[in-house]
Each structure stands twice: as structure tokens, then as C-alpha cells.
Amino acid sequence: MTLPWKKTVEVPLGEEPTVSILLGEEGGEASCTLAIRGRHVQRSTAFGSYGRATCSGALPAPEPAVRDSAVEPAVEGRSQP
Q: CA-CA distance, 68 to 79, in Å (whole number)?
């Protein structure tokens, strides 16, 4: 996989967007970022062998003239030397 890696998904109202990452035995560093309607709400970073990071958040009430959900979770990382 080429890094950094990013994925944007739509999450229905009533669902809680969650991004989780788990590093393998070789470790490294990887971060997840959660943005809801373009506003960053959480960032978490995993380090080392089997490091874990999770980002989650609740969707706010719909805004007028805006799609019901626009969630942009992203995962990025790099390996340790």
C-alpha cells in the first residue's frame, strides 16, 4: 500500500463513524483522523509493535442545504527505520 492513504466514506445518520487501525509485529507509526462535515473532530496515533489507534464521533443534526452525512476518516502512517 502506498502511504499516505486516505479514504472518504458516507455514514448514515444514526450510525457512529469509527476508524480503527492496528499495527503489526514490525510496528511503526500510523494515525487516524476523523472529520465530520469538513471539521476535524479527532486524531489518534498508534506506535510500535501491535500499536492501536481509534477515532470515533457522533454525527450532529443535519444542517440546512447540506447532505445528511459527510464523514472523512483518514488513516496515514509510516514504518519505523
A: 36
Alpha-carbon gap, residue 42 to 32, rounded angstroms: 8
HSE, side-chain direction, 13 A CA sphere, residue 2: 0
- What's the average model confidence in pLDDT over 73-78? 57
Would you say the pTM of this structure is higher than 0.90?
Answer: no
Closest Cα to residue 61, out of 35, 37, 31, 41? 37
Contacts of 66 (CB under 8 A, 6+ apart): 37
Q: How many domains does the chain have?
A: 1
Range of the domain at 37: 5-78
- Which stretches of 1-81 are assigned E, i.e. beta strand? 5-6, 18-22, 29-36, 39-47, 52-56, 71-78
